[in-house]
Write the structure tokens for this entry.
Amino acid sequence: MKSDQAIKLLNDEGLRLDGRRLDELRPLKIEVGVLKNADGSAYIEHGKNKIIVAVYGPREVHPKHLTLPDRAIVRVRYHMAPFSVPERKSPAPSRREIELSKVIREALEPAILVEKFPRTAIDVFIEVLQADGGTRCASITAAAVALADAGIPMKDLVAAVAVGKINGKIALDLNHLEDQYGEGDMPVAMMPGLKTITLLQADGIFSKEEFKQALDLAISGIQVIYRKQREALKKKYEKMIRTVTGGGS
Amino acid sequence: MKSDQAIKLLNDEGLRLDGRRLDELRPLKIEVGVLKNADGSAYIEHGKNKIIVAVYGPREVHPKHLTLPDRAIVRVRYHMAPFSVPERKSPAPSRREIELSKVIREALEPAILVEKFPRTAIDVFIEVLQADGGTRCASITAAAVALADAGIPMKDLVAAVAVGKINGKIALDLNHLEDQYGEGDMPVAMMPGLKTITLLQADGIFSKEEFKQALDLAISGIQVIYRKQREALKKKYEKMIRTVTGGGS
Amino acid sequence: MKSDQAIKLLNDEGLRLDGRRLDELRPLKIEVGVLKNADGSAYIEHGKNKIIVAVYGPREVHPKHLTLPDRAIVRVRYHMAPFSVPERKSPAPSRREIELSKVIREALEPAILVEKFPRTAIDVFIEVLQADGGTRCASITAAAVALADAGIPMKDLVAAVAVGKINGKIALDLNHLEDQYGEGDMPVAMMPGLKTITLLQADGIFSKEEFKQALDLAISGIQVIYRKQREALKKKYEKMIRTVTGGGS
Amino acid sequence: MSKPEKIIPLIQKKSIEALLEKGERLDGRSPTAYRSVRITVNAIERAEGSAIAEIGNTMVIAGVKMSLGSPFPDTPDKGVLIVNAELIPIASPTFEPGPPGEEDVEISRVVDRGIRSSEMVDLSKLAIIPGKKVWVIYVDIYALNHDGNLFDACMLAATSALLTTQKPKTVVENNEVKLLEEKEPLPIKTRPVSVTFAKIGSYMVVDPSYKEELAMDARLTLSFSENGDIVAVQKGLPGYFSYDEIMQALEIGEKISRDIRKHLPPIPTSASND
Amino acid sequence: MSKPEKIIPLIQKKSIEALLEKGERLDGRSPTAYRSVRITVNAIERAEGSAIAEIGNTMVIAGVKMSLGSPFPDTPDKGVLIVNAELIPIASPTFEPGPPGEEDVEISRVVDRGIRSSEMVDLSKLAIIPGKKVWVIYVDIYALNHDGNLFDACMLAATSALLTTQKPKTVVENNEVKLLEEKEPLPIKTRPVSVTFAKIGSYMVVDPSYKEELAMDARLTLSFSENGDIVAVQKGLPGYFSYDEIMQALEIGEKISRDIRKHLPPIPTSASND
Amino acid sequence: MSKPEKIIPLIQKKSIEALLEKGERLDGRSPTAYRSVRITVNAIERAEGSAIAEIGNTMVIAGVKMSLGSPFPDTPDKGVLIVNAELIPIASPTFEPGPPGEEDVEISRVVDRGIRSSEMVDLSKLAIIPGKKVWVIYVDIYALNHDGNLFDACMLAATSALLTTQKPKTVVENNEVKLLEEKEPLPIKTRPVSVTFAKIGSYMVVDPSYKEELAMDARLTLSFSENGDIVAVQKGLPGYFSYDEIMQALEIGEKISRDIRKHLPPIPTSASND
């Protein structure tokens, strides 16, 4: 929808340019605890997206007047490295990055037990090292894992994926090309265990029927991502156990 | 004086392009209390100028260290909407807007009994929706009414008008065209009841005689504007009375 | 080294374009106490560099949270006037000015007995009125004198000069042309009495031997500058004595 | 412009929820009732298009300025649309002067998406010399009084201003663009309308007032094109929605959008631009 | 750069007023006496023009840089003049580092108006290829020591720098501008001078010192061209003037401006630019 | 991005010095021992060059983007190199979000000087149409984990990214630059390496850890080209060095630079650009 050029994004067998079926996720890899200084951290490769997330907190807030008496404030900085995109991006935050920082924060915050840490801040710093469509969703997926890695008590993880419309069909997990030449894009984040939607955006044109179909597809994709998140956390946990009990790295 | 092109701004009968005499004001309309949230507000149409003013205060100041122990601080923001002028203006404040915010503040402040409200702020927000020459003066005229509408105690209202020189003659209340192609512009604000001048600026070339003539003309125009201000306030006051006593809107 | 054009910076007698020997300083003039408001001030002409320095402090710090409980903070602002260079410079601080403010501060601070004035600030404001190569060094030389003039207790003065490489030879006190067309530039600052180096930078290409030779040359130049600094301070001191005892200006 | 923390006493939130349990709201509306909408167009003669949109006591002004400029490198054959909303301190004691903050940016971008995704303005008809000279449309939106639901009010003001915009006709002579005296409207294909829901506790209401916004946990803005398609969605605030709540909002929102659209100026005819 | 609140004890203001009642001032001057003026030109060889202006202990430096550039779209046949004054923290303990604040901006604009309104520099002679290439004149003014009346000091420094500016002659060959070695002065028509008054309580003084400025309620700056015409006026600060006070200032100011003008460099001759 | 004041208890500084007196360090290294260096190249396929550099637990990423642009007016026949380092808050609890502060700027400029002075990249081979079209090289460096010695880590990441950069070949046809599919490396002449020393009390150590940096009085960064020449020096922090300390650092640093250089990618061959 962002470009008029009609591009064939599906072949005659209904497969996508990268060989995926319409309901298939891109390869997904999550690593936990990749940064030494951060209280929690995660690195995600989702398709060709490469994103690193650091969590600091709960910690003191400067300046003091930003604190809340009954809960922690959550601060999120979503930033794209200048070299993450085909044309170098200025390092100064764009309007897009300002909006995404806000909606990502509002997608994560419902899962965090902020009332446990009054007068503190929980900081989530996201750096997109390489972008390939769906960076806000991959950022949320990684940030939730980093929050858990930091030991922040949460109601549930938050997992996210974008669905969209390409050549008239609803497709899961759009890559950059599909995002650019498709007819619609809908990022969705959920607390998968609680079945609640914490991020929902869309642009493009969706009929009511397509919208429902897209949301259903997103929810099914999110379940897969949720599993990967828990596996990544479990792996780190097991590794820690092994390390502690002398099992080696 | 801002352009070399010699433009005939007066016809053979000595009337101006918009049909006015040299000592004639443009049509003037003032409405009081046009905004629900503001403590006081006014809308002015002065010629084709359309300006809205909101007053908030006296209210608490953040940050605290800006307060004064013995009086209220007055803050003024004069801003032009991007669509108020022929060529779109950037929404960021220009040097002109910074200067005008300052001189408008200094034109209003002598009338406000600031010592009645120590450690508070009185905020005057001016948005020029359409500009047609003389916006600073129309802003002052409207702001004084909005301050009164907010119930801020004042020594007097402040009324303002620009005089200038067109085709060698001193003229009252220049419009945009006369401002651009005239030979001089002199904005004047007064507390009309107290006969004191609270804003005086000029550019262009005025002989001493012309300067005196211009100032005299401004003062006479200001008296007319002062009457309109009081009528607008009275109208609102009567309306309130009617509303309170069940007289309908 | 900043330009490829091979320019002959030394004549056949080994003299430089301005007639100096390789180990010769440019003319140097230091005036103390040139500004009335500042607690201390100095004006330096070093070659065609013309730089004025004001020192304010020790004084209160705003905002308070910047203070240190056990010592004064030193703040330095190095700024070039837009008309100080051949092509007008934007008045906003450049990255170069930000770096130089930092290294000049770190060159001066070792000499200042900061622990004598806890919870205060010592402000050093440097304005380059005309630039001719070596402005950071001339700024340091003048700033040290201005600090002394302000009565700030110091371990020693700080004196500075740049050495460099022109046409393959190590030369003292590069001017603008030699800086631009030479093969290397090395600014050095010292507390000359204490023989300690408080600023050292270099760019260009120096062999280890050249580096040592350059540093030795800088140190010898610094001793001359140090003498000029003390003379300038003494002159002012004598003048003060004369004034106080009625000896006239 | 950043807003200071808006605090609402817990007791007030509880009383709003207690009312909602009975299907009632503070101002007497039903949960699905939208406040009265009023559109005033052409308020600013100097702008190429302008409109004041009011939803109850919420008031917003939008102005459209058209100028000739260069296309974006990746869309050389299209006009340029730039939407800029500012929550100026005139509108609310909680708005502060200063450069646009994250709330201003979010509204700007959501209005922009509603207009752009719906293809309301046929930007491909606004390239005069493709790759070189195109029309640049600036839509500047200023909040004047904030009594809740600025998202919808900004969308209404922006679309109404675009619907009534008159731009000069152009001719190209020797690769130079000449502006003619004669005016024509923009090439408009559809009139998108946004409908915003607030979730307060476990209840949903449409078109929240300012007091309801102070109590709301999450916000959902749905934009619909003329034929009922969804063209933009934005969930906001640190709360969440269930699947059913979203589907319900979709049904209700689409109906309400039809009612609101009746207040909009009609799609201009003869919008040919060739 | 913004200044911290300048506070003066009430008692000090009262003592200044008590003196003024007797027609006296803190530094012994009469109310209409201007301090000694000193102009030093060509201090900065690297600038095309430069001057240091001193009024008593107040000291200001101005530098002029000339470059070739594009004209403003609305004045294609004129050169461009840009005036920028900065109250840098060197000059006063009350000035702080940072981008120009409202005081810097006000001074810049008042100096600019004095130069521009008087048509001191004949900008129409500075268009080399009208509509394409014109001379751009930057006048940058830096306060060095603030002992009151920076408005007049900045004006003096700026005009003196312009009066002594030497720019390269130019020739146009094949629509390209060539700068020649030979220099010439700017085309100057008049030498505007500003005179600033302070109102303290009910008294007026000319050329206020820093201590008087701390006590002043209102400020009035009047700029006069060579023939005594008024070319710029600026009232400042939250006080006011009576009609008679302004008329009086006009009379006195015009006389003083003639005295001050004697300190300025002469109008350069052979300023032809064709 | 500015850092909050980093405070170290005096007792900790004293204990570091006590260890140093015995020739020992907190992490068991000798004063002249560098931590393990690890370079990972081509991590970011989308960039023309990229590298992650690790020194112990310090981790930095650099990416190179190449684009066509205009040369600087004073070097019309050379490509343009722009180095930008940012100490983003991911890397340390002491880094804060916001525009680059003086520490970011200092690192950017020291890395830039190391690359530029050594003539690592032959910029004269990157002018495609001299005076008109040249290659612009952006090197963006982001700190990911700060455990001391970011200067060297940023330098390692930047040079490694440049060494592995692949840019499109170009042809010029009718004065237009055409990018070819075929890629080629940058024209590289040498591989500069920086070695940073910390002075703590009266002791010097190489490659300070974060804890050592908290205790350090002064910092010295020396950059060496392949043949051992000094190409950039930067003393930092409000401490000082003796003449002998600097000469000693020069000897040791040059040796260490040879060891570190072994971890760098090789100089690419066939870097001809004509």
